[in-house]
Amino acid sequence: MRAMLFVLLSTCAIAWPTTYIPPQQAEAKPAVEAKKPPKAFITFQAQSAGQLLDAWRKLSKAAGGEKIAELFEAWLQETLDEKGLTGLDTVRPLGGYLALADELAESQLVFVLPIGKESDFLELLERLDIDAESLDEVPGVYILELPPSPGVLRFHEKHAYIGVSIDAAAFTADALISPTDLFHKDTSGLFTVRMDTAVVSKAQRQSLLEGLDAPLSLIPTQPPENADVAKPVEGPVQGIRQAADLFLQSGATLTLRMPFDRDTVCGSLELDIEAKPGSLLAKFLAARKPATNRFAHLVTPETAAATLITLPSFGVEVRTLMALIADELANEMVRPAEDRKEITKELLAGIIGSIRTTGGEFAHVVVGPDKNGSFCNILAVTHNNPAKVEKALRDAAKLLPKDDPFAMSVKFDVAKAEGTAIHTLDAAISLFGDLQLSIVAEQAEPREQFSAIAFTKDAIYMTTGTQAVAAMKQALAAKPGGVQANAILVNPKRWAAYQLAVEGVKEMEDVPDWIVRIGKEDRLQPLCELTTTNGETFRLKLTLDGKLLPMLLKDKLLE
After folding, report:
1. Residue 298: predicted pLDDT
2. Own/partner pairs for 549-555, CB < 8 Å, 24+ apart?
3. If residue 286 lies in a helix (H) or strand (E), which one and from where to where?
4. CA nearest 418: which of 375, 461, 384, 451?
């Protein structure tokens, strides 16, 4: 099965510098003395090949229905001949390790695959068009023709060890980590990767930090153009490098696993950082407060769908990096109308400034249907100085001709809630030129719609619908706060109704398949959640419902 082995072998080989010494050079090298197995900086393991195939079958069927499942089975039949994976043990786990050297390019990357008979595994390689040539100069070692450079193969303890960037003469049995020491008993994750900083020497740590320099050089160091910053800010590069250095010295263990529930077809990514008790990192993790979203209160039992986003609030370097990314996106996406440039300028300055100072929070909530079958969109975002945006809005309306559509649409101080003025405008009019914050509902039965906007001391709210002002009053009156920080939530029954009423879908059978497959219940379900737990072991968990994939991939799922 070419795809499976090439994912395990060739992908890493492409990115990893090679120091493989071909046979003619190996002849001149003196014999290598026996040595102890190296200490692995990174170990990785996956469930068995059989379990991986079973999980992919279930995921493809849940995500794409019977059509995708049939395509997957056809691909398997085409890829595998009648012998299938004979030679590879499809019951035991797969894995490997990375052992660091003082020079990063000399580190050893090794894949460890369970096998049946050695001869059968060699035949499997042949069926996959991977040449394995026995190396006479080093008994027991084979040279594998893998792109872009050769690898080395040795059989040991009923496993095939395939090394990348390793001297063939040094690939001796006593230099290999035993499967007993390599594989962990915890097999809950489809994939599990562990990093142990306790084995990193001072020279290796320095080599790793130098390897960070190239990717860190890609990070911009100029202040955000759209933020309200009078002088250049210190770029995040130095802080990120210092944090990496601190982590490598901490003796901490980092674990990344991917659990997969075959019954619910829900997968997740779990990142655990287990700090050494009493260390500076342990104290930092224990003191960190769990992330929340101040707009989570906008999610109610009447919610059809919601998106909550909370950007990282810890570390000025991380916040600055997020602000720089947001600034780049704004420059690419936003083309403000000439008569509304000042509004857009103040809006972006405050949003990006909020990201840099506190991390930034955002919410988009769709509520409905009400008794008339209508829906309301609610948007909320943190902002450093909403009053400046409100002033720019009032000034722009004063300067425009009275017959200008924008000036005619805006109505100021139509209501008030919690001491905050509420303004309205036509839902089809964008306050910010190309930056369309209002979401227009194209109802099946046309109804008058408009948008309401309000500016609190540190946030901007916008509602759109037939009852926009009433929705705004409720949003402002609700007490801010909530537990969920980052999530995509959907109520299947209400979201299907939204498709019929708003998105122009005429019949129930035309509702997108992924919505039908998540069920018909009248309750919110998390399709994607990012949660954290604190303590001396810090956990970051991303949960993703496999049935969400069609919405994310759309037509690419069938390619």
Report:
1. 92
2. 549/59, 549/63, 549/64, 549/514, 550/63, 550/64, 550/512, 550/513, 550/514, 551/512, 551/514
3. helix 280-287
4. 461
Q: What is the per-residue pLDDT across 182-195, written as a single tens digit (0 to 9) for each? A: 988 777 788 999 99
Predicted confidence (pLDDT) at residue 24 exceeds the cutoff of 60: no
What phi-psi label fits residue 165: left (phi over 0), alpha (psi between -120 and 50 degrees) or beta? Answer: left
Q: Inform me whether the pLDDT recorded for 110 exceeds 80.
A: yes
Average pLDDT on 293-314 reads 87
> Taking 90 as the threshold, does the pLDDT of residue 165 lie above it?
no
Which of 436, 291, 447 is CA-nearest to residue 364? 436
Per-residue b/e over 448-468, b at no fewer than 16 CB within 10 Å? ebbbbbbbbebbbbbbbbbbb
Give CA separation, 545 vs 34, 182, 255, 548, in Å: 49, 31, 22, 6
What span, in angstroms and rounded, lies between the C-alpha atoms of 12 and 84?
Answer: 24
Highest mean pLDDT among 56-70, 364-378, 424-438: 364-378
Grouping H, G, I as helix, E, B as strand and the rest as coil, residue 117 is coil
Q: Give the Cα separation of 345 and 431 in Å (integer).
A: 12
- The token pair at 316 is 């000025």
Residue-wise pLDDT tens digits, 197-232: 999 999 999 989 888 888 777 766 655 555 554 444
Q: Looking at residue 319, what DSSP letter applies?
A: H
Closest-CA residue to 460 (of 326, 358, 356, 363):
363
Measured distance CA(495)–CA(303) in Å, rounded: 9
Lowest-confidence range among 104-108, 270-274, 527-531? 527-531
Distances (CA, A) of 352 to 102, 126, 262, 472, 485: 41, 56, 41, 24, 19
Residues 13, 494: Cα–Cα separation, whole Å: 48
Contact 428, 436 (CB under 8 A): no
Cα 160-163-168 angle, rounded to 5 deg = 105
Number of alpha carbons in the 13 Å side-chain half-sphere of residue 452: 25
Distances (CA, A) of 390 to 459, 460, 514: 12, 10, 40
**Given the DSSP bridges, would you call strands 486-490 and 525-533 parallel, antiparallel or unpaired?**
antiparallel
The pLDDT assigned to 460 comes to 94
Predicted TM-score (pTM) above 0.90: no
Cα distance between residue 542 and residue 528, in whole Å: 7
- CA 155, CA 161: separation in Å to the nearest integer? 6
Pull the structure tokens for residue 240. 């990120």
Q: Which pLDDT score, from 0 to 100, does residue 416 have?
A: 93
Domain boundaries, the chain: 201-219+230-251, 289-533
How far CA 386 is from CA of 42, 199, 286, 551, in Å, comes to: 47, 50, 34, 34
Closest C-alpha to 420, from 387, 388, 379, 394: 387
